[in-house]
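User: Could you check the structure of this?
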Amino acid sequence: MTEPEEKENSMITTQRLEAFSDGVFAIAITLLILEIKLPDHAALEHQSLSQYLWNLWPKYFAYVFSFGVIGIFWANHHYIFKLYKRTDHVFNMLNVLFLLTISFLPFPTAIFGEYIETETHYATAVRFYLLGLVLPSGSWLLMWLYASYKKRLIDERLSDHFIQYLTRFFVFSNFFYLLGFFLSFFYPRASVALMIILALIYLFPPKKPEYT
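Assistant: Sure, the predicted structure tokens are below.
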């Protein structure tokens, strides 16, 4: 057996990794709706059902936004795994770290939706929520840097220009996520607006791979 064949056999395919990731995405995105509770009779003693449902708008906003964020990460995860041709133990652990941050996101989403209208706790809720967005973005960058270094795990036919483009794109994305997080200490509403703009940018289709 040649050295390349031994190297290939020592690495599992990315299919199992992607299937496991899809399961975590599905659970995380489902957990978001569980924070929107049904009203009990005590809650409706001093308000109508329509008023109660209307007053839940912060939870609706947090749910829809986080649903979109996780959905965007899932779509890009599917896109990027077409570029990964093999994996190893370190990459597996980095992907687990990324999934940990995704499964964590429903918690800051619940905090954000609960206290977005509370002046006393609004700024803290925003900072905690933005931290929940910074973590998956950072772990995503780590995965890409590890896999793309000297084309360690990615398709070797990918052009250097395309690899550099993705690296710059992911680095700039992390910069703006971090900028939003630090901005939340001074202008929390502006930081939320920045996160919404970033999410809208990610709705555009990613660049098609370029091969040599």
